[in-house]
Amino acid sequence: GENVEQHPSTLSVQEGDSAVIKCTYSDSASNYFPWYKQELGKRPQLIIDIRSNVGEKKDQRIAVTLNKTAKHFSLHITETQPEDSAVYFCAASLYNDMRFGAGTRLTVKP
Amino acid sequence: EAGVVQSPRYKIIEKKQPVAFWCNPISGHNTLYWYRQNLGQGPELLIRYENEEAVDDSQLPKDRFSAERLKGVDSTLKIQPAELGDSAVYLCASSLGQGGGYEQYFGPGTRLTVT
Question: Is B107 in Cβ contact with A93 (below 8 Å)?
Answer without folding.
Answer: no
